[in-house]
Design goal:
- This protein is an all-alpha fold.
- The chain has one domain.
- The chain has 6 helices and no strands.
- The longest helix has 36 residues.
- One of its GO terms (cellular component) is membrane.
- It is a multi-pass membrane protein.
- May play a role in cell differentiation in the intestinal epithelium.
- It is found in: Membrane.
Length: 162
């Protein structure tokens, strides 16, 4: 019985990773991992390693939430806005810190750190693309609910309280 549940969860994860959002999140996690590997060279030049670590951990957490379908069952947290906040801050922080570190690294010419910053820049751009995807999803959900009759927004037996 446990094997069947494990197989189903792997199938659900693989099916989610085949979607555009799943591929984007997997790419974000992979680019953050490559950026961490590139930034862990034992030369301390003041480049920030905490940003890709934090974004990778948050990306894995949000991937688990979306893969397991928790955004559909847990209504206490608006998961799309949490994801939008994650990708916008990730994009801005990764782009700013990577550009700052590029300026430092051009003078020192440490190639491994430079590769880490290239991966961080690519991850920042991918986070920006993901922000566009999440924003368009939120916008489509809002426009689809505003075009309905107000009585259709509430389940039967629950009228709007004035």
């Amino acid at each position: 019985m446990a094997e069947l549940a494990g197989t189903q969860s792997v199938d659900v994860t693989i099916n989610y990773l085949k979607t555009r959002k799943g591929m984007t999140m997997a790419g974000e996690i992979a680019l953050c991992l490559f950026s961490i590997i590139g930034k862990t060279v034992p030369v301390n030049l003041g480049c920030y390693i905490i940003v890709p670590i934090a974004e990778m951990v948050l990306g894995i957490f949000m991937l688990i939430v979306f893969t397991m379908g928790l955004e559909k069952t847990s209504f206490e947290v608006h998961w799309l806005f949490c994801d939008l906040l994650r990708v916008v801050t990730g994009s801005v922080l990764l782009l700013i810190t990577s550009i700052r570190c590029f300026i430092i690294l051009i003078a020192s010419s440490v190639m491994m750190l430079l590769m880490g910053e290239v991966f961080a820049l690519c991850a920042g751009c991918l986070f920006g693309y993901d922000a566009f995807l999440v924003y368009s999803t939120i916008k489509n959900k809002n426009t689809s609910t505003t075009g309905q009759d107000p009585s259709d927004q509430y389940p039967s037996g629950q009228d709007e309280q004035s």
